[in-house]
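lol ok so funny story. i was supposed to be doing the assay writeup but got distracted and ended up predicting the structure for this chain instead. priorities right. anyway since i did it might as well share w the group, maybe its usefull for someone
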Amino acid sequence: MTELEQKAILSITMMAALADGNRTEQERGEIEKLAASFAGAKLNVDEIYHDVLLRKVSLPDAANQLQSADAKEAAYELAVGACNADGASNDLETKFLTALAQSLNLAPDVLNKYHQDAEAVFNLPVPISGQAAATPKMSEAEMDEMIHKAAIVNAALELMPETLSTLAIIPLQMRMVYRIGQNYGFELDQSYIKDFAGTLGIGMTSQYLEVVARKLLGGMFGGMGRQAASSGMSFAVTYGLGQVAKRYYSSGRKIDTAQLKEIFARMVADAGSMKDRYGQEIQAKITEFKGKRFIDIAKG
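and the output, tada:
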């Protein structure tokens, strides 16, 4: 995949992320902060983001940069993921995807496959039991083990070359938070978990875009399979989210927002130095996941 194709794919993914017309100031701020963090990189995400925002690049122009069938399919698949990252795509996003499909001239069966896979993964329901747990079902050590396993799985998904692997990260994080909350007697739904993650500065769409950008920078798409730059991002975010959720729900939800953010930042920093110790386990997960459908991985 050429550098021009990488830039075009990221431009299209950014367009898809902004297509719904309902982004809040916080969500736009998260995407802008993400883009700025890549300024000066080989693939200047900040420049690409602002070109998209200021409409210096059009959808047909970006689509015309994609010559290979693999690049076209990757662009469409990533756009579908961006449109579904925070829930099912709305009318504006559907209109955008229709226009993209026409620009890329993709076969209907290809389009249907990506829609079905993305919607199945992103709309997996958080399991709801009939009765909240009266006492913790897991010990603190058992919860730590569950959080570590979730972080390892998501680190493996980030490193896999297949485009679809990115789609399973967010629902796995949501399932982890649900299980922690339930362990302390709190029944959570998807909307609540998204709001909780948003409080920590973890946006569903911005996190998806960050994984995509890192994969493109690391040459993961197109079958090249090189390690993505700073590939521990999903490990660190998943670990930090799990540890904050454990502290928050064990306290009876009595920790304020400022404290939650401080704890999250500290846990993410700890995870950054911890990730390399789990390299063999992450590689083992990559091997285990080869050939699996990502909808099955996301179900846990």
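Residues 140-159 form the longest helix (20 residues). The two ends are 32 Å apart (CA to CA).
back to the writeup now i swear
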